[in-house]
């Protein structure tokens, strides 16, 4: 059975009760009862802890098929061979894949998110938040609470342009995105202290068919996964990549021609 999201419209008073840090808002609002923040760092730490004896931290320079029929991985200090290699290296995936004969059309951008302190004690856990209304001067705003409910991270959906070599076209643009997030907090989220306490600056890897596009490219015994926000689909992608490595066949829905996540 496919899970069904449970959502409901909220009256202004209900919205204020669920999100007490928000300024007065009289527009349409909806809550997803099963939604919430993904504790990404906790998940990464748990997985890395389980696999610590098998992990090798090194810079990968090249991946290729060999005449013997396996896959060679050359790193800064090692040469290893494997039955199958899966590439999942963020903005480095396309370059490594190209050396293996795979052409992945990834576009690069840079993104900023700012974390703010919650001003007062909030008894109930704060929900994640998206604002596309424009009422407070921005559209495409998203936000999420920390695990202890004491901080709240706010980001704009906008990104800044990046050259293919990874250099930011206008370095001041990241500062501008952060300043706009602070300005939004001053107007829309008075329950937060508008002085930033933390920042996240990160790369965005987009496929041509949409912001949420994802796909798996495969040739011989080398597979590569690319797209945006892949961590949000990590359990399903992990199973699909394991299936690909064991069978040599990419699940149909994740083949590039399927354009999964097309907008």
How does this model look, in words?
- The protein has 263 residues and is α+β, with helices and mostly antiparallel strands.
- The protein has two domains: 56-106 and 209-258, 3-Layer(bba) Sandwich (FAD/NAD(P)-binding domain); 108-206, D-Amino Acid Oxidase, subunit A, domain 2 (D-Amino Acid Oxidase, Chain A, domain 2).
- It is 21% helix and 31% strand.
- It contains five helices and 14 strands.
- The strands form four sheets. Strands 7, 8, 9, 10, 11 and 12 form a six-stranded antiparallel β-sheet that branches. It has a three-stranded antiparallel β-sheet with strand order 3-4-5.
- Strand 4 (71-75) and strand 5 (79-82) form a beta hairpin.
- The longest helix is centred in the C-terminal third of the chain and has 17 residues, at 172-188.
- The relative contact order is 0.15.
Brief description of this entry?
This protein is an alpha+beta fold and 263 residues long. It is elongated and about 65 Å long.
Task: Give the low-pLDDT segments.
Answer: none
Total tally of structural domains:
2
| CATH homology superfamily name of the largest domain | FAD/NAD(P)-binding domain
For the record, the CATH class of the largest domain is Alpha Beta
Helix coverage percent = 10-25%
* Dominant shape: elongated
The ordered H/E elements are EHEHEEEEHEEEEEHEEEH
CATH structural architecture of the largest domain: 3-Layer(bba) Sandwich
* Extended strand count: 14
Mean pLDDT score: 92
Number of helices: 5
CATH topology of the largest domain: FAD/NAD(P)-binding domain
Query: Based on helices, strands and strand pairing, what is the structural class?
Result: alpha+beta
* Separation of the first and last Cα atoms: 25 Å
Reported for the largest beta sheet, the result is: 6 strands, antiparallel
- Rg, alpha carbons: 21 Å
Relative strand content: 25-35%
